[in-house]
Amino acid sequence: MKVDVRLDKAKPLTQLTVKLFADGADVSGMLELYRNPLVRGFTTNPTLMRKAGVTDYWVFAHEILRAIPDRPISFEVFSDDFAEMERQATEIAQWGPNVYVKIPITNTRGETAYALVSRLVERGVKVNVTAILALDQVKHILPAVAEGPPCYVSVFAGRIADTGLDPVPIMTAAVRLLRPHPNVELIWASPRELLNIFQADAIGCHIITATPDILQKLNLVGKDLHAYSLDTVKMFYEDAQKVGYTL
Questions:
Q1: Does a structural domain hold residue 47?
Q2: Rounded CA separation 25/81 (Å)
Q3: pLDDT tens-place string over residues 87-109
Q4: CA pair distance 42, 73, nearest whole angstrom
Q5: Which residues contact 160 (CB under 8 A, 6 or more apart)?
Q6: Which residues are catalytic?
Q7: Please, is 81 exposed, middle or buried when counting C-beta atoms within 10 Å of its C-beta (0-12, 13-18, 19+)?
């Protein structure tokens, strides 16, 4: 499938079908984004929480859920043992009806989480299967989630791109795999630039996550390229003047 994304004629944000989720763990930032109607949900992970200075998982999660009770939020288990993952997932799932439990596709030993995901789904837990990079991982997890409650499958397209591969064909194939299963939504995870939002929309991906540094560029969508060029020239000139460079 060929995807044609024209930067000089960007689709208006209000016409996007892909849902935009904010990815982060800074409480004040999350609450500010909650006021943005374009942000339809939130995702977190232990790495983002550590960077944000979160030290008490339960307190952080419940503060966020009290403030954001009506949009999906994903919280991740943090054990490397499947039995303990299951215990943590069972507790996290009880925190609220808008909670999705993030389960990594494998543990650190490379052992797959398929059986764990299947057990959780059978009990009605809404899972977000995360850290997926390969298409065969999507294929193998589908039997565990296909007939259950709403769930997400998170494919880290940005990390695929980091390896030198174009993630668009892989994400397009994942969209096709999930199409017969309306309870399963595909997340384009770890985007690297705002353009990825439009790429995800063009292929029919359900959701894309975005960090604050990408979200702050939303006001550039539709900006005239000649005007943006002039802004860039002005920035270079003004910075040189501020420093007082001479030759």
A1: yes
A2: 24
A3: 999 999 999 999 999 999 999 99
A4: 5
A5: 133, 167, 170
A6: 102
A7: exposed
